[in-house]
Every structure is written in structure tokens, then in C-alpha cells.
Specification:
single chain; three-stranded antiparallel sheet; 55% helix
Amino acid sequence: MVPGFREAFSLFEERVVLNGLSQGLFVNYGRCIAHVALHFGRLPHEISVEEINTYLYLKTVHENLCESYFKHTVFGMRFWFRLFGKDEHAIRLPIIKKDQKLPEVLSKEECKELFKAPRSLKHRFLLAFTYSAGLRLNEVRHVKISDVDTHRMQIRIRQGKGKKDRYVILSRFIKERMQKYLDEYKPQMYLFEGQTTGDIMGERSIQAIINDALLKTSIRKKVSMHTLRHSFATHLLEDGVDLYTIQHLLGHSQLRSTLVYLHVAQVIPKVGHSPLDTLYGF
């Protein structure tokens, strides 16, 4: 262990918590920062930017480590440098360009094929439920039975990305099948529970559900649970729902995050017209 690292890391953890950042961010950044400290045998803020850059080059080019490791190391070290008053070091780290890849999207027919693939009603219901409201994997895990309002046709999403609550639509299709699901599986608190009653379902278990379902379909696209969210947004756009409504349903803080679906959706452009003509019926 690098002398003084435990104390410095405790300060890093404290700042992450106070800033309201996610546990996933803490784990990913923390792991990469620890690797840097062990590699150099020094506290991370005592390492020069030139040394960090050389380290990143060796790891990504010669050791062929993944792109996410590179990004988490850069973002983590930026956070660490600023925490210890070395903003000039943070600025000189490599620039991370955002991916310009368009999201993979299932067609409506592929969605129907996927949803009927699992043998288990629970698995079929989980996949359809996730798509029906455009939920993130971690959001669907945390939906409680009490969050589903069948009278107002809403689902309350608590503390989604960015620690924000929001309401999303409850599908009529889901409402009609929900009681059968509840009667058969009898969850106590969360809509989708793990092996132990009352416990939240694990991320890996949900990922395994969609992977197993895909094997029983003709779908050859690279699909994850997040693909259902992309498909939800794209299909709404194709159905004529406006971007601002989709932005709200997805919980995007900025419209530009939602605009990507314009490049994916098969939308026929509308011919422009003067609003004066509609005023007088022309």
C-alpha cells in the first residue's frame, strides 16, 4: 500500500458522497486511481501529467486495455487533481471525445419477438415493462409495487440518473397483465425481486434474462437492456410524439441528449406551411 493513500482515498470518497455522485462512479474512478498509485508507488497527486500520459499510452497501446479503462482513469485523475488543488494538472490531461455512434434500435416486430421469447412470465413481463416506459436498467430494478399507479396510469421513478424523481407513462398493456403477474409471483416490495422475497433483483440477473431471451429469437443485433430504452424513444418519435415529451419521459436534463433519436427514427418530414393559412382555413 502506498503511504498516505488510505487517508487521501477517504477524502476522495467523502467528496464523491457530498457531491451526490453515484456509487458506480466511485467504484470505477476509485479502482483506476488505485491502479495508478500502485503503479508509481506514490500518491496520485504527486505524479506528473507527463507520467500519467505515458502510463495511459502503455496501458492502452501495449497492454491493449479497454476504452472504458482509459476514460475512467482520465476522469478519475481529473477529479483527484482538482480535489487536491492541482487544477492545472487536470486541464492538461487528455481530452475525452464523446462517442458519435448512433444507438442500436429494435424494430417493433423485433420487440414483439423478444418479449414472447422467455418461458417465464416474470421475464416476459420485465422486458415488456422496461420497454413500455423507457426505463434504465437501474430504474426498473428499483420500481416498487406502490410506485405503479394504475388509476392515474403513471409510474413513479425515484432517484433516477442525476438523483431526479419523475413520472412516466403506464402502458395499458402492462396494466391489464399486472395483476396476473402479482398473483403468480407475489412480490412484497419491489415489482421485480430477486431469489429472496423483498430483495431487489441484481443487475446481472436482469442482463442474463435479456441475453437468454435473445438466443431464442432471430435477432442478430447487439442488444442490451438499454436497447429497449433506445427503442422506446425511437418508436415514440415514429408514432408522432414530440421531442420535448420524449425528453421528459426519458428524464434527459438537456434536449440534445434526445436529439440523437432524430437520426435513427424513420420519420417522414412534414411539408412546412404558413400558420396564417391555418388561421383562415386555407
